[in-house]
Amino acid sequence: MPTVIPSTPVAIEGTNGESTRGAPRTPSVALAACARRLTIAEYDRLIESGLLPSGDKVELVAGMVIDKMGRNRPHIQAVKRGLEALTKVLPAGWHVAKEDPVAVPEWSKPEPDLAIVRGAVGDYDDRDVTAADIALVVEVADSSLAIDQVDKARVYAAGGIPTYWIVNLVERRLEVHTDPGPEGYRAVRTLSAGNQVPVVVEQGVVGLVAVSDILP
To answer: How does pLDDT run across 86-100, given as a tens digit for each residue?
Structure first.
């Protein structure tokens, strides 16, 4: 289970009687079951008030505030390569967003590594990007693989996002999730570095991307 925050280190008595600062513990299943989930509006207020770290440190998934995973060099490169590949096939009237929050009413505001979003960047000066604005969402996964395959897949599918890609750096493959439903995506296809993946926008294929162009 992801770490729930905000959380501060607790004072722990050392063997010499001195107080030391210990790292926050992951909550037990029992404690997590009692936790109060946050809505997007509540989460935004906590961010704006400074009671939570800035948005590039945390994200809201299924009402739980979780730490965003650190990014190593393969993760950084996969995001850059994915951004380049998607930009090349992008049709007019859409843009690629990188690590921007997406509101999935009313309990989630994840920050996917990449997303194909309807319209121009300026269309969202006064409102959040929502799941209804998105044709494709992409997560690059290594240490976050379990969360991306289960929790975020459920969130994105429940929001009705048509296609979800997981760039699986652990097994060096691309997982293509389609046919969203309330409990998750009903179809999952796995592609290796020798394959190409179609980019689908509003029921039409707008281009092909080689999986090897994304994997670092």
So the answer is: 999 999 999 999 999
